[in-house]
Amino acid sequence: MNNARLNLACYPAFITSKTRDNHPLFANHALCEIVVSCLYYGRSKKWFELLSFVVMPDHLHLIVIPREKNISQVMHSIKSYSSKEINRSLSREGPVWQSSFRDFTISTPVQLLQKAGYIHNNPVRKGLVSEAAEYRFSSANRSFETDLANVL
User: Fold this and answer.
1) What is the pLDDT along the chain (152 residues), one digit of tens a residue?
2) If you ran DSSP here, which 8-state letter would residue 127 be given?
């Protein structure tokens, strides 16, 4: 089986990345802040357009449209920098993320809205909040700006 990624420019990608051994590392809100800051750093550098995200206790979901970097490069940058900052914060060494990630190329506006809804409702499904907008580390929270409106 070939594990090569398509890395299609201009198409949204739904991405899931898990923590090493599915450890609930992001139950620590300070570590969630690190991941979110990495996402917004990449967005500010035009590596991608950020359409949707959620940082769950043991995984990250996001939808991005690659720009200056392809999906593999985007995820390498996010995972590498966040790992360094998280390990520094915890005074430790070692892997934070599983080595790979899953991605799905979104080809229609209907798929995009379905995947964004899935991301935003993940904390509700897991019983962390009663409404998606209440979750602090999700683009469903109105405190975060995304590029979703620009593509719909």
Assistant:
1) 345 555 556 889 999 999 999 999 999 999 999 999 999 999 999 999 999 999 999 999 999 999 999 999 999 999 999 999 999 999 999 999 999 999 999 999 999 999 999 999 999 999 999 999 999 999 999 999 999 988 88
2) T
Give the SS3 label for residue 44. helix
Residues whose CB falls within 8 Å of the CB of residue 28, separated by 6 or more in sequence, listed in order = none
pTM metric for this prediction: 0.93
The sign of the CA dihedral 116, 119, 89, 81 is negative
CA–CA separation, 127 and 92 (whole Å):
30
In angstroms, what CA-CA distances link 113 with 45, 85, 117, 121?
A: 25, 32, 6, 12
Contacts of 102 (CB under 8 A, 6+ apart): 15, 16, 17
In 3D, which of 121, 127, 124, 115 has the Cα closest to residue 151? 115
Amino acid at 117: G
